[in-house]
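Shapes recur. Our protein:

. . .
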Amino acid sequence: MSAGNAPVRTLEARYYTDPAIFDCERRGLFARTWQFAGHESLVRDAGDYFSAEIAGESLFCIRGHDGVLRAFYNVCQHRGHRLVQGAGSARAIVCPYHAWSYELSGAFRNGPNVASVPGFDPAAIRLAPVRCESFLGFVFVNLDDGAAAMDAWYPGVREELAAYVPDIGALAPLEWIEVPERCNWKVSVENHSECYHCTLRHPTFATGVIRPESYDIRPMGEGHVLRHTTQCQDLERMSYPIDLSVPHADEYRTYFLWPAFAFQVYPGNLLNTYHWRADDVDRCTVWRGWFTPGGAESEVVRRLARQDRETTVAEDLRLVESVAEGLKSRGYRPGPLVVDPAGGLNSEHSIRTLQRWMREAVDGEDS
C-alpha cells in the first residue's frame, strides 16, 4: 500500500525473477490453494480417472463405485511407484510395479504373497487422499487438508456463473489450447487482470467483442476473486453472432480465481477458461479451454476460439515476453500503478489487489 498520497508501486523484479521465490510459491502458495486439475467430463462413470501435476506432486482423480469423486497422491504405498498415467478407466487401481491393488475408494485390496507376512494389516494401508471439489463440473484439488472450501475462497462465483452460463453443468470441453510463454506466471496473470492495454493492443477484442467504455475489474466480496464486467459491442460490430433472448447474453464476465484460474464468459453466454501452469521461474503455460453442451461441435465456438488465438492470445504473448525481458534489466525500477479511484478501463486498481496477494504469498502473511 502507499504511504500518504504517494502512488502504489509495482512489485520488485525479484518477485518474478528469483528462483527461490518461485520455489517458495510452488511449495507454499500452490500447495495450499485450490488448483484446477481437470474437467468432470473425464470422470463421469465409476472407475474413470485422470492424473494431474499440482505443486510438484503427481495426483489422480477417480470416480468411486459409490459415485463419489476422490483425489489421491499418485504413489503406491508399497515402494512408491506411480499408479496411473493420463486418463482412463479401471475396475481397481493396480500398481504396474508389483501389482499391489487398491479399491476405487483408496483402500488396500491385495498384493502378491502379502498374506505370508507376519502381522501384515491390510486395513492400515490406503492411498494418501487429497482435498477435492467439483465446482460446476470443474475439478479442483488442494494439498492443504485444512484449507477452507472453494465457496469460502470464491464467494458468490458459483451462483453468478450458473446465472451467466445456464447450462454450465452440461458443458464439456470442445477444444483445449496450450500456449507456452517465456515469462514468470505472475506476469501473465497480471496481463490478464487489467484492461489498461486493451484498446491499445487488442483491437479485435475491443471493437468486435466488448464495449471498452463500460469495462471494469473489481475484487468480488471478501474472497480471492477479481471480477471483470462489461457490455458487449454493438451487434452490427460483433465479430460473431449472439442470441439476445438468453438472459445476460449481452454481457461479458470474467472471474479470476486466485492464484491461477479464470472462468471467462463471452457475450452469448459462451464459456472458456484460463489455467496458468507455473513451469519454472521464467516459463509458464496458459491452458485455454472452450466448452459447449456435451462437447458438441459448434462452428461459432470454433471460430471464436480461432479468433481469440490469432488475435488476443498472440498479442498478449508478445507483451508478456517483452515484460519478462524488461524485468531482468538492471534498468528496471518499480513504477507507479495507475489507480483511478473511479475504476474503469484505464485504471490498474485490480493489479493493486493482485500484487497484494502476491506479496502476502511470498512474504509469509495470510493469503
Remarks:
- The chain has nine helices and 17 strands.
- The CA atoms of residues 181 and 317 lie 7 Å apart.
